[in-house]
Design goal:
With 266 residues, the protein is mostly helical. The chain has 2 domains: 60 residues; 195 residues, Lysozyme, CATH 1.10.530. The protein is built from 9 helices and no strands.
Length: 266
């Protein structure tokens, strides 16, 4: 009997050890799963953080705030200007004064822009600007096409982005479009202390571009700077024929002007 009870107790002890072993193994398995879940959750958090940083970096890239530049007019071929970048060095800050001049605009502008000459004189006078500065923006942005709309959504003669207009304004109305565009350029002149080159860069690339320099600009803003300051330099040299204008037309600007001429009926 004692032997039987001893054997029974022994069997129960073995059973207890087996059960304890099962529960122990089960407990280890749960812990392992918890550790794996914790690791996976941390990995997801790290991935989410990485995507958030990437998104913020992309959002921080400078974007055009006022003009879309003439090489982005809907339905027209893109102006290629990389060939004139080689060997050209532009240093913001050495441009002439933005003060108004007597008489009309320079003869270097195309007929499509000269079509708006009296209006340009009026718009420039409202802000005491050299009208040639205003005409240059119109030349490069739309070549005088009042209905121009870019693939980025910029509109009208001065390719102004929609968020610059208030509710109820007609963004394609020449006077409204011009005043919004010229006002934005004047703001950039104020920001840069009257630096014409930086103000043109800011017209294309926004206030961030106006506050930075060539090396920090997008290629589009660099090209825009080349065209606009090149035109202004030719005008300041009292040229009747602008080499920069010829380059701009050959690089694709002529297509913008053909579209403008058709819409203006000239």
């Amino acid at each position: 009997m004692a032997k039987f009870m001893s054997s029974k107790r022994h069997g129960r002890n073995e059973t207890d050890r087996v059960h304890r072993g099962k529960f122990k193994n089960k407990g280890v398995s749960v812990i392992e799963r918890k550790v794996m879940v914790s690791i996976n959750f941390r990995m997801l958090l790290m991935l989410a953080s990485a995507f958030t940083v990437l998104f913020l970096l992309m959002a921080a890239q400078p974007k055009s705030e006022a003009g879309s530049v003439g090489n982005r007019i809907a339905g027209e071929e893109q102006i290629q200007t990389s060939e004139i970048l080689v060997g050209l060095e532009h240093t913001p800050g050495d441009e002439a004064s933005a003060a108004p001049i007597q008489g009309g605009i320079s003869p270097v502008f195309t007929d499509e822009v000269r079509y708006w000459e009296q209006d340009i004189l009026t718009w420039a006078a409202e802000y005491d600007l050299d009208p040639n500065l205003v005409a240059i923006i119109m030349q490069v942005e739309s070549c005088g096409d009042p209905q121009a709309v870019s693939i980025a959504g910029a509109q009208g003669l001065f390719q102004v982005m929609p968020f610059h207009f208030v509710e109820g304004e007609d963004s394609l109305d020449p006077d409204t479009n011009a005043r919004r565009g010229v006002r934005y350029f004047v703001d950039r002149l104020s920001q840069t202390g009257g630096d014409i080159g930086l103000s043109y860069a800011g017209y294309n690339g926004g206030h961030v571009a106006a506050g930075s320099s060539w090396d920090n600009w997008a290629h589009e803003t660099q090209r825009y700077y080349i065209w606009t300051t090149g035109l202004y330099g030719d005008i300041q040299s009292n040229l009747d024929h602008s080499p920069t204008m010829e380059q701009w037309l050959q690089a694709g600007g002529a297509s913008l002007c053909r579209q403008a001429a058709t819409r203006l009926g000239i």
